[in-house]
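Box S1 | Example of a co-folding query
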Amino acid sequence: MAEVGAKWTDGFESQRIALCKSDALVNSGEAQPFDVLYCGQSCLAFAIRYADQVHAYLNRCSHVPMEMDYQPNRFFDLTGHWLICATHGATYSPKTGACQGGPCRGGLVKIETSEIDGVVHWHTDPQLHTVNF
Ligand code: FES
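Box S1 (continued) | Returned holo structure for FE2/S2 (inorganic) cluster
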């Protein structure tokens, strides 16, 4: 896990970005969407809660780089144990983003998160930045 404030060899320093209140994310429930700049491209990302832990990923399927939610902010399958892509049914582990089944080509891009004093944060890294409007 990347430490906030840690410096990479190129001098990059990670930031912690407040996203939502902790109680906005319930186990296997709806996701909280957010915008990021990933490798210079504007992308959607999402945070979910699974088994009491918050995880976040780019909203980009590894099969075809499309957004995955079948309804806005709905990523869990009917079991509540897998994240599923609406287009061709690739499934991913909510804990790691690893491909579990279907036509995935690798896993989801994971984004570091933390919860502090009832607030969920995501962390920037050298490829992942905030979008400045
Ligand atoms: S685009 Fe996600 S499974 Fe094909």
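DSSP finds no helices and eleven strands in the chain. The CA atoms of residues 32 and 47 lie 5 Å apart.
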